[in-house]
Amino acid sequence: xxxxxxxxxxxxxxxxxxxxxxxxxxxxxxxxxxxxxxxxxxxxxxxxxxxxxxxxxxxxxxxxxxxxxxxxxxxxxxxxxxxxxxxxxxxxxxxxxxxxxxxxxxxxxxxxxxxxxxxxxxxxxxxxxxxxxxxxxxxxxxxxxxxxxxxxxxxxxxxxxxxxxxxxxxxxxxxxxxxxxxxxxxxxxxxxxxxxxxxxxxxxxxxxxxxxxxxxxxxxxxxxxxxxxxxxxxxxxxxxxxxxxxxxxxxxxxxxxxxxxxxxxxxxxxxxxxxx
Length: 276
Hints:
- This protein is an alpha/beta fold.
- The chain is 38% helix and 20% strand.
- The protein has helices at residues 6-14, 51-54, 61-67, 72-76, 118-146, 178-193, 216-224, 249-274, and strands spanning 2-4, 19-23, 28-32, 38-42, 81-85, 105-106, 109-110, 149-157, 169-172, 205-207, 228-236, 240-241, 246-247.
- The radius of gyration is 18 Å and the shape is globular.
């Protein structure tokens, strides 16, 4: 893996190069092993938190971990194109619009002992801006090369906080063209429901049950690119204990191995239907 500036990353994408890099500000990673008509993303995988923010933050390290999406990058790491955040959403949230990306409160709790200065906010927002420059270049390159692409937008959520039964998998589709893509959303939902987990963990899959797909990452791509389907795909944190801060590696490995097979199969079916 290389450490590259944003301009260097953009040049490599524009040139169609194969590479793996971390951005020079260490805010995200990108890997392109091959140019294919699909990409995977884990925008909330990151846990880094700028040290200069530590003393001013009211939330604990566990509080932050609890609301992040740990291991989501590992679930998609084997795919040819993967982009993932390195920083905690508590510094800036890549799935929020820039104006709301730096939180003042988080999940009903004040975040900072004293309000952040504009300089501190802008330091974080620049990383948000840089990430989306690369996202734009990547999707533009894939649409230009293939005519159509699919993005698997991986997230996780805390299922134990719900007071009702919730699905293992949730697809959020409220901001995509369901008339155009509805059949392929259903195919993806069905495929995920067939995954068999260890420890008799149930595998259920529903659409817009816990979340509706209102994230900025999906909206940004959908609004800027007419021939890209973004599938906001959330897994309940059955791969760990959200209260004990424990990860079950064997469950993460199961998901990764299943997605190695299921994502390319699904992406090929979408591409076959929509390629120009």
